[in-house]
Structure formats: C-alpha cells, structure tokens
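Annex B. Sample input.
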Amino acid sequence: MLTLYDHPRSGNCYKVRLFLALIGKDYQSTFVDVLARKNQTDAFERISAFQQIPALTDGDTAIWDSHAILLHLAHHYAPQWLAPLSRLGAMHAWISVSANEIANSLQPLRLTRVVSSAEAAHHLGVSDALLDVPGMQARTDRVLGRMEKHLAENTWLAGGDAPTVADIACYGYTALAEEADIDMTAYPAIAAWRKRIQQLPGYVPPGP
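Annex B, continued. Sample output.
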C-alpha cells in the first residue's frame, strides 16, 4: 500500500494526489500538520530527509520531493505518463521549471497570500524583513509569460498529443494561481491548458 504524507493546502502535495487520482492508484493519506511543525521530528526525517511534504512510502521504499514522487509513480505504475525518448529532455526541462522557476516565484507568492507574513517567512527560511514580495511577483509574471508563449504553440508542455508528468508538476501551483492574486485572464493559453487537465479522466480539484 502507498502512504502519502500530505497537507490539503500544499500545492506540492496536490500534484501527487492529482497524479494518483489520474492513474487510478489507491493510497493511504497521512496528514502532517506543518503549521504546527509536526514535520520537524526525527521519525519524519527518516521518511523525508529535509522534513518536507509530500513524502511517499511504497512498501519499504520512502520517496520525498513531489517531482521525485511523480517520476517514481510514473516509472512503476503509469509509464504512459513518461514522454518518448524524442521528448524526454523537454519533459525533464519542464519538471525543472516547476522545481526552480515556479518554486521560486508563484509558489512563495501564493504562500504570502494564504498564511501570515511571519509564517511565510518561516517556511521560506528568511526574516520578515527579507520577504521580497515584489520580487516574487516579478518572477511570477516572467514564468507565466514564458509558459503562456510555449502553450500558445503546444497542447502539452513536453509537446506531443498526450500529457506527461511535466504537466502535472507545473499544474500544481498554476492551478492555485488565483490564490496568489494572479489574474489568469491575462494568460489564455495557460487557462486552456488548465482546462485540458481538468477534463482528464480521474481529475480531482485542489483544496481540502
């Protein structure tokens, strides 16, 4: 049995819940109250080296980091979600966009809108005084602009006529863009891509 260490408001956890639903894989969910620092224990560190969620146990194997989990699930249970060799580089590049550009822009920007400044600063590892919201906004505008341009010419992020794990990786926080006070009417190609994902069999929306 798969066990997902989860929080309902986490976009990274949502990526994994969504993918598990799309591939029809049963799992057990274990709530981790990160706001109460319940992840900061030696026991949880044995599952997740950086005490971060999501984490997944698959039998005796523990996997942490949402992107590593998505790839583990695809390789073991849903290889149809992996790009063919000719587009494998593109798939991994867009997973990297999720782990880097989105994780350093839209993800923290949304955090500043849904929790207090002090809580956001704690999770981002900075002081309140160094919480650079204008910088997050500028980086978010840039990454969404790049995604918009790419999706205006491609149905899916890695190209081709079927989604890959790259789409789920990037969708997690893009699905929550309105919670970061982003006007998504400015990004019609992203909006259309989000709708395509929402129409996939097994889709589940974000949220508790």
